[in-house]
């Protein structure tokens, strides 16, 4: 019998995927914090262009994210020779998407660089989760 609201509970796989996404997002929060710190320091402190500062921050965040995702999020059983190049390929795609989004939003649409970075981060988060869960680590947890 359906619930009064018509909503069904998530199947086990859906709950597991949701928990995995929360771990991924938590790991991403750590990497994103590093990314934003580098971005703000380079743009506000050193006068670097927003896109260049964001690219540098993205690289720092990607390295931190790899380690957290490898050990904690996915509990990977793959060796680093398998996982690291794939993770970095996903990070490179994320870097390109991030840079293109930042360029579009800051240089074409004149959105403040921090608001633009929030939007770019959301896009890269969803894309990165899908690719890493299905290709890099193969949902090993």
Summarize the amount of helix as a percent range: over 70%
Low-confidence sequence ranges? none
* Strand count: 0
Q: State the end-to-end CA separation.
A: 33 Å
Largest sheet: none
Q: What is the count of DSSP helices, taking H or I runs of 4+ residues?
A: 4
**What is the global morphology?**
globular
Order of secondary-structure elements: HHHH
Strand content: under 5%
Whole-number tally of structural domains? 1
Mean pLDDT: 89
Sheet/helix structural class:
mainly alpha
Report Rg.
Answer: 17 Å
Write the layout of secondary structure elements.
Layout: H1 12-45, H2 50-73, H3 80-108, H4 113-136
Architecture overview:
The protein is mainly α and 141 residues long. It has one domain. 79% of the residues lie in helices and 0% in strands. Helix 1 runs antiparallel to helix 2, helix 1 crosses helix 4 and helix 3 packs antiparallel against helix 4. The longest helix is centred in the N-terminal third of the chain and has 34 residues. The model has no long low-confidence stretch (mean pLDDT 89).
Q: What's the short story on this structure?
A:
The protein is an all-alpha fold. 79% of the residues lie in helices and 0% in strands.
């Amino acid at each position: 019998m359906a619930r009064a609201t018509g909503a069904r509970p998530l199947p086990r796989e859906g709950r597991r995927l949701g928990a995995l996404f929360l771990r991924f997002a938590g790991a991403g929060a750590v990497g994103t914090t590093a990314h934003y710190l580098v971005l703000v320091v380079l743009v506000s402190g050193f006068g670097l262009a927003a896109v260049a500062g964001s690219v540098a921050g993205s690289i720092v965040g990607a390295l931190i994210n790899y380690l957290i995702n490898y050990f904690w999020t996915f509990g990977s059983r793959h060796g680093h020779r398998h996982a690291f190049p794939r993770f970095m390929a996903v990070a490179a795609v994320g870097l390109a998407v991030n840079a293109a989004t930042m360029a579009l939003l800051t240089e074409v649409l004149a959105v403040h660089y921090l608001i633009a970075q929030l939007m770019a981060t959301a896009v890269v988060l969803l894309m990165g989760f899908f690719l890493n869960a299905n290709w890099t680590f193969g949902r090993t947890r």
